[in-house]
Amino acid sequence: QVQLVESGGGLVQAGGSLRLSCVASGRTSSTDAMGWFRQAPGKEREFVARINWNTGSTYYADSVKGRFTASRANAKNTVYLQMNNLKPEDTAVYYCAGRKSLTLSYDYWGQGTQVTVSS
Predict the structure, then answer these.
(1) Alpha-carbon distance 14 to 56, whole Å?
(2) Please, which of 35, 38, 43, 70 could form a disulfide with 51 given CB 3.0 to 4.6 Å?
(3) Sign of CA dihedral 30, 64, 56, 19
(4) Residues 6, 87: Cα–Cα separation, whole Å
(5) How far is residue 89's CA from residue 35's CA, in Å, rounded to a whole number?
(6) For residues 69 and 81, is the Cβ–Cβ distance under 8 A?
């Protein structure tokens, strides 16, 4: 099992920045990548970004490309999501998720952290 704990959410004005963190513990070696997802009220959860543990390669949803940056600190089993130029439509609960190497499915989820962007 892998346990994930997110932090760093909060209230920010449009145009501002926040950095989310996600600390992984447990069998982290069973994961090849970490994803960031978000869910706004009344909407389905959507993919935001992904970062590969070994290579550091990243992939982003079009809606955040150029504004959000995923990074990792392998020695700390931690991934980050730097969010710049935030918009009110970025308001959501943000989750980090561990992707299992064998199945490429996101089987491990954190509890989520609220991000609210005021206009």
Answers:
(1) 29
(2) 70
(3) negative
(4) 21
(5) 20
(6) yes
Q: Are strands 10-13 and 113-118 parallel, antiparallel or unpaired?
A: parallel
Distance of CA 116 to the CA centre of its chain: 15
Q: Give the integer Cα–Cα distance in Å for 59 and 41.
A: 24
Chunked in runs of 10, what are the mean pLDDT values of the chain (119 residues)? 96 98 95 97 97 96 98 95 98 98 95 97
Longest alpha-carbon distance in the chain: 42
Token output for 17 = 């920045």
Q: For 45-77, write each residue's pLDDT tens digit.
A: 999 999 999 999 999 999 999 999 999 998 999
Q: Map residue 46 onto helix, strand or coil.
A: strand
**Which is it for the CA torsion 47, 48, 54, 55, positive or negative?**
positive
Residue 119's SS3 state is: coil
